Amino acid sequence: MYRNTWMEVNLDAIKDNVIRSKEICRKRIIAVLKADAYGCGDSHVARAVLSAGAEMLAVSSMDEALMLRNEGYEGKILILGATEKEDVELLIKEKISVAAYSAAWVDSITKQNCVGLQFHLKIDTGMNRIGFKTIEEAKWALESLLNAGCIAEGIFTHFACADQKDQVETNKQFTRFKEVYEALNYNFPWIHTDNSDATLSFKDELTNACRIGISMYGVNNYDISLRYPISLHTKVIMVKEVDEGERIGYGLTYQAKKKEYIATLPIGYADGFVRKNQGRCVYIDGQYCEVVGRVCMDQVMVRLEKEVPIGTDVEIFGPHIHLEKMAEELDTIPYEVICLISGRVTRTYIWEGENLEENARILKSEIAEVHQS
Ligand SMILES: *Cc1c(COP(=O)(O)O)cnc(C)c1O
Questions:
Q1: Which of 230, 227, 222 is nearest to 326 (CA)?
Q2: Which atom of ligand 1 is nearest to the CA of 196?
Q3: How many angstroms separate the alpha carbon of residue 366 from the centre of ligand 1?
Q4: What does the pLDDT look like over 9-31, one tens digit per residue?
Q5: Which of 203, 250, 325, 364 is flagged as catalytic?
Q6: Could you give the CA distance from residue 331 to residue 83 in angstroms, rounded to a whole number?
Q7: pTM (two decimals)
């Protein structure tokens, strides 16, 4: 790691959060690792959730599923989103389960050899994204796929408003799901409706698994105290004193009101630190420091209350500025903040109390040694 901008992921904390979720829902856990595990690194997060007892992984696409297979994961895996008829042979070979989500999809799949393809029937209970809405459609899809030799591994739906505490919409959706499920009269091994918030709050006797994503990262709307495994950091690379009236950054949008200390940090919108962060604060050595001037692609300037040495750690979010607070200030949700952290931000990992980042440091010194000899 050469650039001093990194995201720390505590895999022990993720593991604890999964164990906690499992204790609360008392069902099997399907860990949702789509989008590279919400930007945290799918193979690392997989290791943590599997050791916590997750029994299935879910992703959004064939590419993501194959990534996990290539990384050596041989267990159960489900693609929640769309798949193509061209993928069927590989899906069967790699034992990857898919969502059966539309009549057109069923048509295209069953027109070819699809014997052994494992599917989870997706029921649309009100969100209007993907899935079968009527009992007739669902029945037809199930029968067509079974007749073609596919294997019905599960049935599921997705809640649109699980974060709303009154659960009015969730109850409606669940009732609808139960209706469809009962009408199908089929013994599905995996029955699952709950995302993170529903896993922590919604109780039912029908389902036997929960799909958790964001709660692994400590975020939930039910005040359940989970651990916060991720934090984003950078370091001060330059500090300068500016006079009253001097202006800062592209467009010179900020003007110093008095003599001020300005620090430059090596993080910008190409790291996922979006331009809307202008005016927000980062945390540096006990101070909350405002982002002054526009956020650049690779750098940003902040105003210090007191001077700090070059190399001082900066917390973008973490123990002093919660991810949820940052998301709120940016008018978005924690999911978007973490998914936008780009690939060039180094991920460091804590696992079984050890800092896996040490590897990068050791490598760095080994390379230095090679250069010297
Ligand atoms: C993303 C996703 C989840 C996980 O949602 P969280 O709110 O992160 O727990 C579960 N199910 C489906 C279908 C999803 O797309």
A1: 230
A2: 9
A3: 42
A4: 999 999 999 999 999 999 999 99
A5: 250
A6: 32
A7: 0.94
DSSP string covering 103-129: HHHHHHHHTS--TT-EEEEEB-SSS-S
- Residue 50 neighbours by CB distance under 10 Å: 17
With a pLDDT cut of 90, the percent of the chain lying above it is 94
Backbone angles phi, psi at 278, to 5 degrees: -55, 130
Domains 10-216 and 230-341 in one fold: no
State the average pLDDT over residues 257-278: 98
What six digits make up the tokens of 324?
A: 């949820």
28 pairs with which residues across the strands? Answer: 209
Characterise 215 by phi-psi region: left (phi > 0), alpha (psi -120 to 50), beta (else).
alpha
Taking domain 10-216, whether its CATH number is 3.20.20.10 is answered by yes
Could you read off the pLDDT of 221-259 as tens digits, one per residue?
999 999 999 999 999 999 999 999 999 999 999 999 999
Architecture of the domain made up of 230-341: Beta Barrel (2.40)
